[in-house]
């Protein structure tokens, strides 16, 4: 198409077109459903897919780039549009075919009109029905057509992504060939290549940063090539690689970060703010352009960045930042760089030692490269170039920098690990090349779990064998004297499956806990599959928000279906309770902490566009899916299948000793599962509330599986002991016991804050304890659901076994009565047991 002079459409039109097509498809499907509920499955599937995709198109429209732009998502987009189009096309064909058959049948009804008096009325209703069906089919056809165009756009996006993977050698070969052509042909080739490359980068660009234009004129072909190479991290000598400033903050308070230009650093004439996705905004990133000029393989020595005069206010801010050990974060070729703003230097004099704050004015960048790719970057401050920040007066400062390039043999796919391990401000003990502690923690947890499993299994076998031998012993010795009342858990088997109090709240907690459990498992699976590379800023937070919204259907289904099994009637109120039992505390916490961040003026405050994106995701994705799950759960729910019949009058719970109370049992139930994850918690906290990188999702997944098994075993054991004490109110108790691990995790937060970290200040403290309270509460709900589910399955199995033993004993007693006629008391007992 290049030889024919074909030009791509403008990049700004594509997001608007994609958004208009999605909204049009959504509206036509909704209108089609309002006219006719025929072929509901195809329409419902289309609605679900469009609602799921709408937030991404809104982000694409407003930010002019895709929220998620990796290969897997584009493949999902490609096949999702195709499947949606096929479903809608099938629905359209079925709808038109149905109307044809109905019209054909209506003609026969009209022919019999003379014999049947109500045939004409029926015929008029059928014609009205066919008219509505035709209107619905037309709207559905429009939606199918829009889906077809969306499918073409998604196919185009995938093809463009594949074309980006063209190797650098092939690109250079095309460049050499174009230079050998005549001048006129070369001009056409240059024009087409620049347009295509610009279109690729602006429309289908990923989170990789585009280069900032320098002040010098650059050839269009070179600019296009640099832009393409930025996406592939490949460069030629002289290509400009941008350096972005991100944030500034105290090293001990990772969430208390401020904008890069809140401090008087050198800035270009026009500061450009990079477009950020939702995850980057949640992470507090605010990338801005800087006047640094890096040319690939070009060394620089004391290049002047700028000369400026710092005001008294600037000097005071720098001095306060140096005294509080502030650092700044930069980004070079998607690699994070950290450097302290300055340091407190000891000045020796005859009066003693004085600590003087000094501002670093010169930075040395050491860039390691392998062929045409950047592998590692080191940022080192020069102690010989500084300015004293002791007095509140104006200071003239000259900022300079040096760049040196060194060759390395490290491969590109391992560069983030090499970069982080070798970086002077990152402790390598946190990183994946030091794994003996992780293996030891898994070994310890596995041994403890195995011991507990063997002990519990031995105990259960002995108890059940004792019950079985008791039944068989009575029959073998023909001891049928007097009926003795059962004791322990067998005595209250008629109350074991009595529904709990506040069953709507219980079902809501169970549904929300199941939702959060699915969320955690999904995040761990995505981490194992490599969806969270360390250099992809915000990828984890993006996945967390999107997966939470998409899996809302789980909470609606689990809560309403279980509530219906408990013979609940107000399922809509239960659904609202399910949606708010975790979201409302999280929303209130977020609102308060975001207000604190705004008052401090930090980048931790989510901007308005981020709040709008979260609101759209909650309104148009999470809430409809929650309602859809509730409707499915209401329609699919069956009766509660209790193994035995529940007694009409509940038995009185005997007075229990103190160690059988709720609080002691929660303390006992939480300490063992907490011991499984204790060692891993330190690494997780150092990642979330520190400057470390966690990539061992496989180990974390194994630990989480051990945590679930330990929680289930402990809950089953304590539930058995509770029922053995003839306390049948175990439903809520088992949930609390399983969730008590979340309380231990919050207790560890207190220990970590005061004894393992250096966090200070109201903002950092409120962020730490506020969000960790939400996390601990979520873990409480998730593990509580696991504990109750395990206890319910065990009690159902045990009651079923008891029922089988009772039936066997009744049969043996009846057989004994037949052998000894005249003994009516034994038969009466048999009837009583049956």
From TrEMBL:
Record localization: Endosome membrane; Golgi apparatus membrane
Keyword Transmembrane helix appears in the UniProt entry: yes
Topology within the bilayer: Multi-pass membrane protein
Record's keyword terms, sorted: Endosome, Golgi apparatus, Membrane, Signal, Transmembrane, Transmembrane helix
GO biological process, one term: protein localization to membrane
Membrane spanning residue stretches: 12-32, 38-62, 129-153, 442-463, 505-532, 538-563, 575-593, 605-628, 666-685, 697-723, 735-755, 767-794
Domain of life: Eukaryota
Pfam families reported in the protein's UniProt record: EMP70
GO cellular component: endosome membrane; Golgi membrane
Assigned protein family: Belongs to the nonaspanin (TM9SF) (TC 9.A.2) family.
Protein name: Transmembrane 9 superfamily member
Taxonomic placement: Eukaryota, Viridiplantae, Streptophyta, Embryophyta, Tracheophyta
């Amino acid at each position: 198409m290049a030889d024919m002079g074909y030009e791509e459409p403008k990049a700004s039109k594509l997001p608007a077109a994609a958004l208009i097509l999605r909204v049009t498809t959504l509206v036509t499907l909704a209108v089609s459903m309002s006219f006719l509920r025929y072929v509901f499955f195809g329409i419902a599937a289309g609605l679900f897919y469009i609602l799921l995709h709408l937030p991404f198109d809104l982000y694409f429209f407003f930010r002019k780039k895709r929220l998620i732009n990796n290969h897997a998502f584009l493949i999902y987009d490609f096949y999702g549009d195709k499947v949606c189009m096929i479903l809608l096309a099938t629905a359209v064909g079925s709808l038109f075919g149905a109307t044809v058959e109905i019209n054909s049948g209506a003609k026969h009804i009209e022919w019999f009109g003379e014999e049947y008096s109500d045939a004409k009325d029926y015929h008029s209703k059928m014609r009205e029905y066919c008219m509505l069906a035709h209107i619905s089919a037309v709207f559905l056809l429009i939606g199918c057509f829009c889906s077809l165009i969306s499918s073409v756009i998604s196919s185009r996006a995938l093809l463009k992504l594949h074309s980006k993977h063209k190797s650098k050698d092939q690109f250079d070969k095309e460049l050499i060939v174009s230079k050998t052509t005549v001048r006129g042909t070369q001009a056409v080739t240059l024009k087409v290549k620049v347009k295509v490359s610009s279109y690729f980068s602006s429309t289908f660009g990923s989170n990789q940063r585009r280069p900032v234009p320098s002040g010098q004129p650059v050839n269009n072909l070179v600019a296009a090539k640099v832009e393409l190479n930025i996406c592939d991290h490949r460069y030629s000598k002289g290509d400009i690689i941008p350096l972005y400033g991100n944030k500034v903050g105290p090293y001990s308070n990772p969430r208390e970060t401020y904008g890069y230009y809140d401090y008087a650093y050198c800035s270009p004439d026009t500061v450009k703010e990079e477009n950020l996705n939702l995850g980057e905004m949640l992470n507090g990133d605010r990338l801005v352009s800087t006047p640094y000029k890096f040319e690939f393989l070009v060394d620089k020595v004391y290049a002047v960045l700028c000369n400026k005069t710092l005001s008294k206010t600037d000097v005071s801010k720098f001095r306060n930042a140096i005294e509080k050990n502030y650092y700044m974060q930069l980004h070079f070729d998607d690699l994070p760089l950290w450097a302290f703003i300055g340091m407190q230097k000891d000045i020796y004099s005859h009066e003693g030692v004085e600590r003087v704050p000094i501002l670093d004015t010169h930075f040395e960048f050491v860039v390691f490269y392998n062929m045409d790719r950047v592998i590692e970057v080191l940022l080192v401050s020069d102690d010989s170039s500084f300015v004293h920040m002791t007095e509140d007066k104006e200071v003239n400062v000259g900022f300079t920098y040096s760049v040196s390039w060194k060759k390395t043999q490290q491969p590109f796919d391992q560069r983030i690990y090499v970069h982080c391990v070798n970086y002077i401000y990152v402790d390598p003990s946190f990183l994946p090349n030091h794994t003996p502690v992780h293996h030891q923690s898994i070994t310890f947890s596995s041994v403890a779990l195995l011991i507990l499993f063997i002990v519990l299994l031995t105990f259960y076998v002995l108890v059940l064998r004792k019950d079985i031998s008791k039944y068989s012993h009575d029959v073998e010795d023909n001891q049928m004297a007097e009926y003795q009342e059962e004791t322990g858990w067998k005595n209250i088997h008629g109350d074991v499956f009595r529904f709990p109090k506040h069953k709507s709240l219980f079902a809501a907690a169970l549904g929300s806990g199941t939702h959060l459990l699915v969320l955690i498992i999904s995040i761990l699976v995505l981490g194992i599959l490599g969806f969270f590379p360390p250099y992809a800023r915000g990828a984890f937070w993006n996945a967390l928000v999107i997966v939470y919204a998409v899996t809302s259907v789980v909470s609606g289904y689990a809560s309403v279906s279980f509530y219906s099994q408990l013979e609940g009637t107000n399922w809509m109120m239960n659904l609202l309770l399910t949606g708010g039992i975790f979201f409302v505390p999280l929303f209130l916490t977020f609102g308060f902490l975001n207000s604190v961040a705004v008052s401090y003026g930090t980048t931790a405050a989510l901007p308005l566009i981020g709040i709008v994106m979260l609101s759209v995701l909650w309104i148009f994705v999470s809430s409809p899916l929650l309602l859809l799950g509730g409707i499915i759960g209401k329609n699919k729910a069956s009766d509660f299948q209790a193994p035995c019949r529940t007694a009409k009058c509940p038995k009185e719970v005997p007075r229990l000793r103190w160690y059988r109370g709720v609080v002691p049992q929660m303390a006992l139930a939480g300490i063992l599962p907490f011991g499984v994850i204790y060692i891993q918690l330190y690494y997780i906290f150092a990642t979330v509330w520190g400057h470390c990188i966690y990539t061992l999702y496989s180990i974390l997944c194994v630990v989480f599986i051990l945590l679930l098994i330990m929680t289930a075993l402990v809950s089953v054991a304590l539930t058995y002991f509770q029922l053995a004490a003839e306390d049948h109110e175990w439903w809520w108790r088992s949930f609390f016991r399983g969730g008590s691990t979340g309380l231990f995790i919050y207790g560890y937060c207190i220990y970590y804050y005061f004894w393992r970290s250096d966090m200070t200040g109201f903002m950092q403290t409120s962020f730490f304890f506020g969000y960790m309270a939400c996390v601990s509460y979520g873990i409480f709900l998730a593990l509580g659901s696991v504990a109750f589910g395990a206890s319910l399955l065990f009690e159902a199995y045990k009651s079923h076994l008891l029922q089988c033993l009772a039936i066997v004993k009744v049969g043996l007693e009846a057989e004994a009565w037949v052998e000894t006629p005249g003994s009516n008391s034994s038969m009466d007992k048999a009837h009583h047991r049956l």
